[in-house]
Amino acid sequence: MRTLLLVLDLCGTFVFAIGGAAAANKRDLDLFGILVLSFVAGNFGGIVRDVLIGDVPPAAISDWRYLAVSVAAGFVTFICDSVVGELWSFVLISDAAGLGLFAVSGTQKALSFNLNPAMAALLGVLTGVGGGMARDLFLAQVPTVLKADFYATAALLGATVVVLGQSIQLPPWQVAIVAVVIAFGVRVVAMHRGWRLPRARKR
């Protein structure tokens, strides 16, 4: 389980860090700003999760690999800025992948700390959307989770699969793969089809 959580966390950190660095690059920030946004986007959700469940200091601070992965993603984005700019759809896909990875790893880590299933799923969602929210706030824009209806919903679906898988004692690796695929798939399809949840009718 420790290996599974580490792999999911580092993979999610890398893809979210790319998204954060690409967003910073799109807003014409310098190298330092890009690296800051890559670290924030890749680690903020995990830091909040670890603090809430009492795993302190958070893994993103105590384990050098999280910083190394974030900085590497930032440098790759900075060096390949023209390619990233042309492949913005790839950035959106990587953001969806990070959402699924973090939602699953957050839920599994919360369950490993013996939280009840409902709270574990909510912490999984928070882990998935936290980095993106922090990134958007740093860039002074409305967080994606508040305007893309199937962003948090996709994370919640992935987290729910993890909770159900553990309740019937399925192998963690298999459950993690299925949950990531579901969260990722729902988010990507929602982006392409423009799915939205019901909204209040304006008078």
Task: Quickly list its features.
203 residues; single chain; globular; mainly alpha
Task: Explain this structure.
The protein is mainly α and 203 residues long. It has one domain (2-193). Helices cover 82% and strands 0% of the residues. The chain contains 10 helices and no strands. The protein has helices spanning 2-26, 31-53, 59-62, 64-79, 81-86, 88-112, 117-138, 144-147, 149-167, 172-193. Helix 1 (2-26) runs antiparallel to helix 2, helix 1 packs parallel to helix 4 (64-79) and helix 6 (88-112) packs antiparallel against helix 7. The longest helix has 25 residues, at 2-26.
Largest sheet: none
Output the helix-strand order: HHHHHHHHHH
Using the CA coordinates, give the radius of gyration: 16 Å
Kindly give the count of domains.
Answer: 1
Structural class: mainly alpha
How many distinct helices?
10
Helix content: over 70%
Low-confidence stretches: none
Number of strands: 0
Distance between the termini: 52 Å
Mean pLDDT: 87
Share of residues in strands: under 5%
Globular, elongated, flat, extended or rod-shaped: what is the shape? globular
